[in-house]
Write a structure and sequence with these properties.
Blueprint (H helix, E strand, L loop, with lengths): L1 H6 L21 H19 L8 H24 L7 H26 L2 H6 L1 H21 L9 H16 L6 H18 L6 H11 L5 H18 L7 H19 L23 H4 L21 E3 L5 E3 H9 L18 E2 L1 H13 L5
Antiparallel strand pairs: 1-2, 1-3
Helix pairs in contact: 2-3, 2-4, 3-7, 4-6, 6-7, 8-11, 8-14, 10-11, 11-14
Length: 364
């Protein structure tokens, strides 16, 4: 009963997108050890040589601990001790099974997420790594090592990992935190009407984040937009703040990288008739490429007063207001039901549009 009470604390906090994993209750002792060897070895093989852009130190620390578990598990398998384990040891190994799966999910999350998203979630993800370290420490505290006849070198490695896990504190990389704060400062500057210089943005996006081209920038934008939609408003930072970062990334895609191969350029000459509702008359009379993100999805015209609705989408205030006044209760772009009719000014995007229009001599 005491062991069960201790392990009830191991599941308090979940890693991002963690599914409910069940320990292999039907496995024999030998099969359980073999499964753990395969799982831990696969984790080390997948992530030991993988250089993550963010969370490098936390990831390396976790993988090194898993490597020591591999040593322990291989010893249990090869020595034959896995066929005569105590009930407490079996409980501990089943908990290790869950812990390894949680480690895999967290490491996969760091590999598959976009750089901007990892930066915005820096504190939260660092906290998940810390939680796993604490769970490893708790697991080792209750693991009956004296009941298992370990060799001296294996026992030394386990004792060292246990000591390190107890001492380790929450680690947040200073360089990554500085980048995160710089990203928020960009948002503040845009909202206050100051546009960062091209060199400032290049230093951050290209040098700091390693986003080298338009395609990579588009991937970052799409990932952020996906988080806004998938979390349905239950997200930190809030959807309105995330939309500000999306607007900044879109601006940098246009400013720093130009257009990707699949980008449709709207080039309209004086000799062509203006397409109704497509772009403003002043722009239609020039040969110019307009970022499509500056258009309202309803009017297909340049937004003058962009606002964010409850689904996280941005529209021009006049068009979305008219849409709601007509009795519509859904988002025109996604079809999602509107949780409320509040319109939040997208100041970052408006400043970007104003900056772009000023740069091209176009009256807004």
């Amino acid at each position: 009963m005491a062991t069960a009470a201790i392990f009830s604390s191991l599941r308090r906090r979940r890693s991002p997108s963690l599914e409910a994993f069940l320990a292999p209750v039907d496995f024999t002792d030998v099969k359980l050890v073999q499964t753990l060897v395969l799982l831990s070895t696969e984790l080390v093989s997948c992530f030991s040589g993988k250089s993550l852009f963010f969370q490098r130190k936390n990831s390396r620390s976790l993988v090194r601990k898993i490597e020591i578990f591999v040593v322990l598990l291989e010893y249990l398998r090869d020595s034959g001790a896995g066929s005569a384990l105590s009930s407490t040891t079996i409980v501990c190994l089943k908990e290790l099974y869950l812990l390894l799966y949680r480690s895999k999910i967290l490491l996969d999350y760091c590999v598959q997420s976009s750089k901007l998203w990892l930066l915005l979630q820096n504190h939260s993800i660092s906290g998940h790594f810390h939680d796993l370290n604490q769970e490893i420490s708790t697991l080792l505290d209750v693991f009956p090592l004296d009941d298992v006849d370990l060799s001296e070198d294996v026992r030394e490695q386990i004792d060292l990992m246990q000591s390190q896990s107890r001492r380790r504190r929450l680690f947040i990389d200073e360089d990554e935190e500085a980048l995160r704060l710089r990203l928020f400062s960009f948002l503040d500057e845009f909202e206050n009407g100051r546009i960062p210089s091209v060199e400032e943005l290049r230093l951050f996006f290209v040098e700091g984040l390693g986003i080298k081209d338009a395609t990579s920038c588009i991937t970052e934008i799409e990932f952020l937009e996906e988080q806004i939609v998938c979390h349905e408003g239950d997200i930190e930072p809030t959807a309105s703040v995330l939309n500000g970062f999306v607007a900044i990334a879109r601006y940098c895609r246009f400013l720093l990288y130009g257009f990707g191969e699949n980008e449709v350029e709207l080039q309209i000459g004086n000799q062509k008739r203006r397409r109704k509702g497509l772009i403003a008359h002043e722009i239609a009379e020039t040969f110019i490429t307009i970022p499509k993100d500056f258009f309202c999805p309803i009017l297909l015209d340049l937004m003058r007063d962009p606002v964010i609705i409850s689904t996280g989408q941005t529209y021009d205030r006049s068009s979305i207001s008219r849409w709601m006044e007509e009795g519509h209760c859904t988002c025109p772009k996604t079809g999602q039901m509107l949780m409320n009719t509040r319109l939040v000014p997208n100041r970052a995007l408006r400043n970007l549009i104003v900056q772009w229009c000023t740069a091209h001599g176009i009256p807004l």
